[in-house]
Specification:
The complex is a heterodimer of chains A (268) and B (285). The longest helix of chain A has 31 residues. By secondary structure, chain A is mainly alpha-helical. Chain A is 68% helix and 3% strand. Chain A is flat. Chain A contains eleven helices and two strands; from the N terminus they run αααααββαααααα. In chain A, strands 1-2 form a two-stranded antiparallel ribbon. Helices cover 43% and strands 23% of the residues of chain B. In chain B, the strands form two sheets. Chain B has a six-stranded mixed sheet, with helices on both faces. In chain B, helix 3 crosses helix 4 and helix 4 packs across helix 6. The radius of gyration of chain B is 20 Å and the shape is globular. Chain B starts with a strand and ends with a helix. The chains are: A mainly alpha (268), B alpha/beta (285). At the A-B interface, helix 8 and helix 10 of A face helix 2, strand 6 and helix 3 of B.
Chain lengths: 268, 285
């Protein structure tokens, strides 16, 4: 059943990674991405691998989640590897046949790119594993709030994101119910050509649309009843505050970052 | 022969996860053809899960379901015909309407059965009359109708498949008293006219007492009992223990009996209560 799909990959926990301020976590993640791209050889990248791995261990997220986050982009990783393998033609060739030419530089770039992408995905997915969606949107709102000066509706965007996240499970449940109801009327969704199966979705999609609009209307009314009028002058129940642990977190990443720069400059 | 039969039916939600929950536990049951069965039970007692097994929407974890002597899930291709035999009306069925006109929406089920247009038209006219929607409404979009009308169109959509068993999950919930009586009245009429089996899930003991001949009681995923309406309501104390009640009028008369104002019969409808009172009064005179 659709209900069994887990949406929102947040793993509640109390590890130091979980306790970091969400705003800082986003900034650190960006810094981490920059770090991965500054590292321009395997040695520098090893620091990145080390950082990813150690942070994962600290966060106490099950290690198999590492694999789960890579799985959806597995094909992209393979294509990247193959492209680099066949189209980097500098360096000494290992193998040459007609237009195919594999060089030592090509192999090196391929491995390098693959490792970099994997680190990138695993490291950044740690952000969503350890931060609840609500905290995340809150933090995004705060970080983007300077954009309010140039009339970007930051609060509204964040509120939309929060609401969207909130309604994913509700709509999934509803889809399930409507599917069952139409199946009970003999709707056939499992057999037939692709076109026929796409057409069989109409009896599910239309009621789903109608009920989303209904939900939206009801929610809007409920928000208005509680005097919601947009972001201006709104205070928060949960204030985000920087704590000592955030300092440690920053220091922790800075060490690795410095390591990468040192390696880049002195270990050529 | 029993139209619906289950053997050691067990269904578990979220098997192999921390959220594992047994929803239907070892249910053995035989429902004879032509009955009007009330299905009662506390919220979360497994009523809705149980009825979804009767037309093959859920696959039992263990045990089996027989419809009209035919075992479900032996051959997956045979499931669709079963769904035409056992019509299931979900809770709030009006949320499943999707066609441009009510006519087309009611036709959805019969069309899936592969009937020809003349037969479909005949059935739609018949059920429309039965549920009390006029031909002017048939041409309207279902989204323009009132809640009660929508509900009737949705129920008509299942009735039009002329199922041997009609199962309705709380068909009257969320309606005003008049709408309630109308819906339940038309279901009873349908039952009497067609002589088909009807299973009615409801939280209202008054409705159950008024309309059904037999009652099936679910308690904590288990089948508590399946018996004649009178006999089930006779076990008032047990029902109350599991968070259910007997009809208000039954409670009144049980108290009267406890006070020594004797009525030998169990009273479970106001109509019968009235008759008893009149008899008693005429005796006093």
């Amino acid at each position: 059943m659709i209900k069994d799909i887990t949406i929102g990959q947040y793993f509640p926990g109390k590890s130091p990674v979980h306790r970091l301020d969400a705003r800082l976590k986003i900034l650190l993640t960006i810094a981490f991405i920059v770090m991965l791209f500054i590292a321009d050889d395997i040695k520098g990248l090893c620091v990145g691998i080390g950082f990813t791995f150690i942070t994962f261990l600290i966060s106490r997220i099950p290690l198999k989640m590492m694999w789960k986050s890579i799985k959806p982009i597995f094909i992209i990783i393979i294509i990247t590897a193959l492209l680099n393998l066949f189209f980097v033609h500098t360096g000494t060739p290992y193998f040459e046949w007609k237009f195919i030419k594999i060089t030592d530089k090509g192999v090196e770039t391929a491995v390098f790119m693959v490792v970099r992408i994997i680190c990138l995905i695993v490291g950044t997915s740690l952000l969503t594993y350890t931060t609840s969606p609500i905290d995340l949107t809150d933090a995004i709102e705060r970080l983007l709030s300077p954009l309010k000066k140039i009339k970007v509706p930051v609060h509204e965007l964040a509120m939309m994101m929060t609401i969207a996240l909130r309604f994913i499970p509700t709509l999934l449940e509803e889809t399930d119910k409507i599917t069952c109801a139409q199946k009970a009327r003999g709707a056939d969704m499992e057999t037939g050509s692709l076109f026929k199966r796409a057409k069989a979705l109409i009896p599910i999609l239309i009621p789903l649309f109608v009920s989303s609009f209904r939900h939206a209307e009801e929610l809007a009314l409920a928000m208005e009843c509680r005097c919601y009028h947009g972001g201006e002058g709104r205070t928060r129940m949960k204030q985000l505050r920087f704590k000592l642990i955030d300092l440690w977190g920053t220091l922790y990443l800075t060490c690795f970052f410095a390591g990468v720069i040192v390696i880049n400059h002195f270990c050529k | 022969m029993a139209i619906i039969k289950t053997e050691d039916l067990t269904y578990v939600y979220g098997e192999n996860t921390p959220f594992r929950k047994v929803a239907v536990d070892n249910v053995n049951l035989e429902i004879e053809s032509g009955e009007m069965v009330g299905l009662i039970g506390h919220t979360g007692s497994g009523k809705s899960t149980l009825i979804q097994h009767f037309n093959g929407l859920l696959k039992p974890n263990s045990g089996s379901v027989y419809i009209d002597g035919e075992k479900l899930w032996d051959d997956k291709a045979k499931l669709r015909p079963i769904r035409f035999k056992v019509g299931l009306v979900f809770q709030y069925p009006e949320y499943q309407l999707f066609e441009e006109t009510c006519y087309k929406d009611i036709a959805f089920g019969p069309k899936n059965m592969g009937l020809d247009n003349a037969e479909i038209d005949r059935r739609i006219k018949e059920v429309a009359k039965m549920v009390g929607i006029g031909s002017d409404i048939l041409d309207k979009s279902p989204f323009e109708l009132s809640g009660g009308q929508k509900r009737r169109v949705a129920i008509a959509g299942v009735m039009a498949m002329e199922p041997q068993v009609l199962i309705l999950d709380e068909p009257a919930s969320g309606l005003d008293p008049k709408g309630r009586d109308q819906i339940l009245g038309l279901i009873k009429e349908y039952h009497q006219q067609k002589k088909n089996t009807v299973i009615l899930v409801s939280h209202s003991m008054e409705d159950i007492a008024k309309h059904t001949t037999k009652i099936l009681v679910m308690n904590k995923a288990k089948l508590f009992c399946y018996d004649d309406t009178v006999k089930v309501f006779h076990r008032a104390a047990e029902l109350e223990e599991m968070g259910l009640a007997v009809p208000q009028i039954t409670r009144v008369f049980n108290r009267l009996r406890a006070m020594g104002i004797g009525f030998d019969d169990d009273v479970y409808t106001t109509k019968y209560a009235g008759e008893l009172m009149l008899r008693l009064l005429s005796k006093r005179k």
